[in-house]
């Protein structure tokens, strides 16, 4: 067959040609090339164009690239749709913006094009953050198209600084252009600013060298081609101008207020100093003017890790060295190896890291062990999908050993992704001790645990009902079953079925009595196909309607079985007809009924979900196809009695999305009753504490009503069960059945198992044949051993002796039973000791509206998006890679647009961690509002500015004293802030010890914001100015004592500032490790040679050291601050933004008058007032003063006469009075309307009441002000 013919413009190639040529390279067979100035055929056509071997002409790069691409480039199924979406994204978003930026037209056109390009790159960067390629695990046409679209800006426009915000795009771009097929077409790609200077091509389409074949030599462009390109440029410019005009009109419509808001966008500052990984960050330069997470978080973590700060051996000869501060050990709940970071992980990491850092700073031998779970089902599903996508083969076609090699290969490629993400959150784990549940050390512990428990009779084999996933062909645990609630008839998508399947209906049909066919019993079911496995009909023994049926039977219409009518009090006489069908092999309740009445179990579903043990035509049908077939057959026989809606819960496999079936299977079980009794008693005795205490009731409920645990899974990936089925080549020993536990032995090796079998059957080992169980153990079994298997159990070791039992287990309350209880039971059974002494359970993270996070709602938040920020377009792009159907996708987009209209701003790791800990009120779910996280980002900026002021105030020559006691003349403000510091030190330590994270964050936040920054820093500014000799001695009513006194006061202020900053950073360090390390490293040291090198290992403030609490002094300062707040309120009422009015204080008690005089300088500074005088007893303030009561001990008079323009103020107040009057009249009329209380929602009524109260209070103030101003005229 002739090769296709590809028509291209003369070189150099543009993005369209490059895209087609690279796709052709991947296709293998090179098309014949022909260089033309215009498209072939009768019309001008679009280039590139392709003439297929069949003679069909495909015009345009999209069609040509599609034809030349092999199937692997186009994707399969859902991936194919994603490839098409990314191709459309490149054509509609990237290419136009790239063309305009490369042409550099200047002005608003170029600026707008750059903004468009940045927005597109932000969306692309967000999508690529957890991915290697755009779609799937290999290059697709999406990667080719987007890469070619970015060539021009990356080579000629975007320098290193412009590329820096998009690290994931840059990583992916460089990986793509260095693929062999890319290099063959593009040649070496040199980025802008990294090689020889290069100017952009004259035309936006000219994008670089590279071609296929000798025809690639450069040729001059024809006149017609140049004319066409000029028209294209003109069209693009008109489009851009039209777009700019539209956007300008929108911007104008939004008003100037919006523009002011945009000007307040948070800036991004990057750390550009070259710091090799593991080297200490250079903080010798000047501090940036404002806080930037990207600057602050750079370079610290590799240095912490390199220095070994997170290891328990740090600062001691060995972990076994006695430590009077004790040992703190905790293990990370091992996330799935398939997982990526979500808010649950972020919450766990924030809480656990705060505890680990706090104990480490307190001097305890601290170990926090990371780990990763092999996630049997999840991992096998991921690898099976990849195998099918890449080679079109199943695991069964590949074989078990080869498939397991594929899984290990995938694990080596992708398995540590979540570790890198956890490091981004600053988690201080000992990564050298990281464990994977399939590591040899842990696998040996799993085998040992199974064999020991089996030998003790705690593990046994039995045939029982299990949750069965037909798609996975495996039993699954309860936690892997999602319960989908239906209100009635609902059509659901089921994997493997093209048409949706009906659920939520109750179908009634009749069974005819054997001895009298005219009589019938009507039963109802929601799973009609299972009636083929019915073995009885049950009625309540006291139901008067069915007393005549005792001892009688019905005939099955399809199988011919004779079904007894049994009487059992489990039947609900009010449900349906009061008669129920009994299918023991496919329903848990029916199974128990069958056991009580000795009924047979007839299995009618195979592992794949096809009907078995049934007559034709149902035999071999798929279960939900059989549902319809049975219904039609019942109708044909006249046995159908009706259908109605029925609210129900459908069990869905969380991994495969298949409907779960109860199936009878021989499985391995752990006998839990005795183990659970020991776990419950440990809590009752107080040996194990569960916090919050409310969860103990759940613990006892589960432990006291526990059922045996099914631990076998029909998978290949996981710990293969070390159990062997025995066949004895001896006629005296009858052959056994699979479900008969007597024919199963366990062993650490096959030889050990054979010896056990020989002893059990009294034969020689040579006559024993063994077959190892194909199944693997439930993932929760290996996770249950985690607290001691990570230290090498069952082998004795120093680490096992020192760190087991652990100190604390911190996790989400949703896995209290699935993981925590099993760790406790297995720890007691295998080691005789509890695995930990305390359990702290955190809440579930929900969105700001209290809704569960769901992709279909668009409210799932990636923590790294909060850390780095993401645009709304980027959030939308993330949805495109999900498996949502179009309706869900649109709803999710609207949800994102509603919650994040401007995207998510960059908040930084510290702000996210602090917010998560601050939210963690015990016993409540967490409604995470990104706005609150942003508030803590602003708090970081407050820290930054406070530290900048302090460092400037200290000066480069400052050296702190060795002791905490300040030098110089200590003033009232110094005593007060030291007292407040003592209080917050005690509060933070007590709160962290009690796992009260909101109390700790509130105390630290309040000290920094309201005590240190808002009050003390403002109080010491005049003191420092006088100490430096550039202040007016009488400027604030103090400082008459001369230079020495001023210098002594300034020295005390500097020492106090240093102590507050140093201790304040230590208090925050467990929650905000990056910004505190950055600022602490810039502080001078009390002992430069002996102080710790990092804040990570510096002592946490101890209440015994910071013991300066002075309640009397705090009362005096609080009295002064009450006066300040009153003065500020008065200034705001009269709009005195710049004027400094004089103030007069009336204090009826001499003691408080003296205190007011003592604090007068601070009051003047903080309230920005002029002269301040405390009136003598009986003395009146001058006329023209506004009056307010600060407290029962002080009345404040602010002199307005001569400060405000009375006539002007009178007119303004009069207008405001009229406006408030109209507002009050409207509100009162609204509330007095008939049926207001009945028709208006309660929330609106509450809002109206609040508005009314606020307006009345403001009107009262306005009337008082009017009266005052009128007296001044």
Automatic annotation (TrEMBL):
Residues 76-202 form the GST C-terminal domain. Residues 197-288 are annotated as: Disordered. Residues 226-283 have a biased composition (Basic and acidic residues). This is Valine--tRNA ligase. Residues 1210-1272 form a coiled coil. It comes from Apteryx mantelli (North Island brown kiwi). Residues 197-218 have a biased composition (Low complexity). Keywords: Aminoacyl-tRNA synthetase, ATP-binding, Coiled coil, Ligase, Nucleotide-binding, Protein biosynthesis. HAMAP family: Val_tRNA_synth_type1. It comes from the Eukaryota. GO terms for molecular function: ligase activity.
């Amino acid at each position: 067959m002739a090769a296709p013919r590809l028509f291209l413009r003369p070189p150099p190639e543009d993005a369209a040609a490059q895209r087609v040529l690279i796709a052709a390279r991947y296709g293998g067979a090179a098309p014949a090339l022909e260089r033309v100035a215009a498209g072939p055929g009768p019309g001008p056509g679009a280039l590139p164009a392709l003439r297929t071997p069949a003679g069909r002409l495909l015009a345009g790069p999209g069609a040509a690239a599609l034809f030349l691409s092999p199937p692997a480039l186009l994707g399969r199924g859902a991936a194919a749709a994603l490839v098409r979406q990314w191709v459309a994204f490149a054509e509609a978003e990237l290419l136009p913006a790239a063309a305009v930026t490369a042409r550099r037209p200047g002005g608003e056109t170029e600026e707008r094009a750059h903004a468009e390009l940045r927005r597109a790159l932000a969306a692309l960067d967000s999508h690529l953050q957890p991915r290697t390629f755009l779609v799937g695990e290999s290059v697709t046409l999406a990667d080719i198209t987007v890469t070619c679209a970015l060539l021009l800006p990356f080579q000629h426009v975007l320098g290193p600084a412009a590329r820096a915000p998009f690290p994931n795009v840059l990583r992916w771009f460089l990986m793509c252009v260095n693929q062999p097929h890319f290099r063959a077409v593009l040649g070496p790609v040199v980025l802008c600013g990294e090689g020889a200077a290069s100017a952009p091509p004259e035309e936006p389409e000219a994008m670089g060298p590279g071609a296929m074949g000798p025809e690639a030599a450069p040729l001059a462009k024809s006149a017609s081609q140049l004319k066409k390109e000029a028209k294209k440029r003109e069209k693009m410019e008109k489009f851009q101008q039209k777009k700019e005009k539209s956007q300008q009109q929108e911007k104008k419509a939004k008003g100037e207020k919006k523009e002011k808001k945009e000007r307040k966008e948070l800036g991004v500052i990057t750390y550009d100093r070259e710091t090799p990984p593991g080297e200490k960050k250079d903080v010798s330069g000047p501090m940036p003017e404002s806080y930037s997470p990207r600057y602050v978080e750079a370079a610290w973590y590799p240095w912490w890790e390199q220095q070994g700060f997170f290891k328990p051996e740090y600062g001691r000869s060995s972990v076994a060295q006695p430590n009077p501060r004790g040992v703190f050990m905790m293990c990370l709940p091992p996330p799935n190896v398939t997982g990526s970071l979500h808010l649950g992980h972020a919450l766990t990491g924030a809480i656990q890291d705060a505890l680990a850092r706090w104990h480490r700073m307190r001097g305890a031998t601290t170990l926090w062990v990371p780990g990763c779970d092999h996630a049997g089902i999840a991992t096998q599903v991921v690898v099976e999908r990849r195998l099918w996508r890449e080679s079109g083969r199943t695991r069964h076609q590949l074989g078990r050993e080869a498939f397991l090699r594929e899984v290990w290969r995938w694990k080596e490629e992708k398995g540590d992704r979540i570790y890198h993400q956890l490091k981004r959150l600053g988690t201080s784990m000992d990564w050298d001790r990281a464990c994977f549940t399939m590591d040899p050390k842990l696998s040996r512990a799993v085998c040992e645990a199974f064999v020991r428990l089996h030998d003790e009779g705690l593990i046994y084999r039995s045939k029982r009902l299990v949750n069965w996933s037909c798609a996975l062909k495996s039993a699954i645990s309860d936690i892997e079953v999602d319960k989908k609630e239906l209100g009635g008839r609902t059509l659901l998508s089921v994997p493997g079925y093209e048409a949706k399947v009906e659920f939520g209906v109750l179908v009634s049909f009749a069974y005819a009595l054997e001895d009298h066919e005219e009589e019938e019993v009507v039963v109802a079911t929601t799973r009609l196909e299972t009636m083929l496995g019915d073995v009885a009909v049950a009625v309540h023994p006291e139901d008067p309607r069915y007393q005549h049926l005792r001892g009688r039977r019905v005939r099955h219409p399809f199988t011919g079985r004779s079904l007894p009518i049994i009487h059992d009090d489990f039947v609900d006489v009010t449900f349906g007809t009061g008669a129920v069908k009994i299918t023991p092999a496919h329903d848990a309740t029916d199974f128990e009924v069958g056991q009580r009445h000795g009924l047979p179990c007839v299995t009618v579903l195979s592992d794949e979900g096809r009907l078995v043990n049934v007559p034709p035509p149902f035999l071999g049908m798929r279960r939900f196809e059989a549902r319809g077939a049975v219904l039609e057959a019942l109708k044909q026989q006249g046995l159908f009695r009706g259908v109605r809606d029925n609210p129900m819960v459908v069990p869905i496999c969380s991994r495969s999305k298949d409907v779960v079936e109860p199936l009878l299977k021989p499985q391995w079980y752990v006998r839990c009753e005795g183990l659970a009794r020991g776990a419950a008693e440990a809590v009752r005795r107080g040996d194990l504490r569960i916090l919050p205490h409310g969860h103990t009731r759940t613990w006892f409920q589960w432990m006291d009503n526990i059922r045996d645990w099914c631990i076998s899974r029909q998978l290949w990936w996981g710990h293969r069960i070390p159990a062997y089925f025995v066949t004895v080549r001896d006629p005296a020993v009858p052959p056994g059945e699979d479900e008969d536990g007597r024919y199963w032995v366990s062993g650490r090796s096959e030889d050990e198992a054979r010896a056990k079998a020989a002893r059990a059957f009294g034969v020689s080992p040579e006559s024993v044949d063994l077959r190892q169980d194909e199944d693997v153990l439930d993932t929760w079994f290996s996770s249950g051993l985690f607290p001691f298997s990570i230290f090498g159990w069952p082998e004795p070791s120093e680490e096992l002796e020192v760190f087991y039992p652990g100190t604390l287990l911190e996790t989400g309350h949703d896995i209290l039973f699935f993981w925590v209880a099993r760790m406790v039971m297995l720890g007691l059974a295998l080691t005789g000791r509890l695995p930990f002494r305390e359990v702290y359970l955190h809440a579930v993270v929900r969105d700001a509206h209290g809704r569960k996070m769901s992709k279909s709602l668009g409210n799932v938040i990636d923590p790294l998006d909060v850390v780095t920020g993401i645009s709304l377009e980027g959030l939308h792009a993330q949805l495109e890679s999900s498996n949502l159907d179009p309706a869900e996708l649109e709803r999710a987009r609207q949800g994102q647009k509603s919650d994040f209209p401007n995207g998510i701003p960059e908040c930084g790791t510290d702000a996210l961690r602090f917010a998560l800990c601050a939210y963690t009120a015990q016993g409540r779910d967490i409604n995470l509002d990104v706005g609150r996280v942003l508030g803590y980002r602003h708090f970081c900026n407050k820290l930054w500015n406070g530290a900048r002021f302090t460092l400037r105030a200290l000066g480069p020559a400052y050296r702190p004293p060795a002791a905490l006691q300040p030098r110089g003349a200590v003033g009232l403000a110094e005593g007060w802030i030291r007292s407040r510091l003592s209080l917050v030190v005690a509060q933070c330590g007590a709160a962290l010890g009690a796992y009260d994270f909101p109390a700790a964050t509130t105390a630290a936040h309040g000290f920094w914001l309201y005590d240190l920054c808002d009050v003390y820093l403002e109080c010491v500014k005049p003191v420092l100015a006088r100490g430096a000799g550039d202040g007016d001695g009488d400027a604030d009513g103090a400082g008459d004592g001369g230079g020495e006194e001023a210098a002594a006061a300034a020295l005390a202020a500097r020492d106090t500032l240093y102590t507050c900053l140093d201790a304040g950073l230590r208090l925050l360090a467990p929650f905000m490790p990056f910004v505190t390390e950055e600022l602490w490293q810039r502080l001078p040291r009390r002992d430069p040679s002996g102080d710790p090198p990092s804040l990570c290992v510096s002592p946490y403030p101890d209440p015994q050291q910071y013991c300066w609490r002075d309640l009397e002094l705090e009362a005096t300062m609080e009295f002064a601050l009450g006066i300040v707040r009153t003065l500020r309120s008065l200034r705001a009422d009269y709009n005195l933004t710049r004027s400094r009015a004089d103030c007069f204080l009336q204090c009826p008690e001499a003691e408080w008058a003296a205190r007011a005089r003592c604090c007068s300088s601070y009051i003047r500074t903080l309230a920005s007032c002029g002269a301040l005088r405390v009136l003598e007893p009986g003395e009146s303030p001058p006329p023209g003063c506004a009056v307010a009561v600060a407290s029962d001990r002080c009345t404040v008079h602010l002199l307005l006469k001569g400060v405000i323009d009375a006539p002007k103020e009178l007119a303004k107040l009069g207008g405001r009075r009229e406006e408030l009057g109209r507002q009050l009249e409207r509100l009162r009329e609204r509330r007095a309307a008939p049926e207001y209380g009945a028709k208006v929602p309660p929330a609106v009524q509450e809002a109206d009441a609040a508005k009314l109260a606020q307006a009345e209070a403001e009107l009262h103030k306005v009337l008082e002000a009017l009266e005052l101003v009128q007296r001044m005229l």
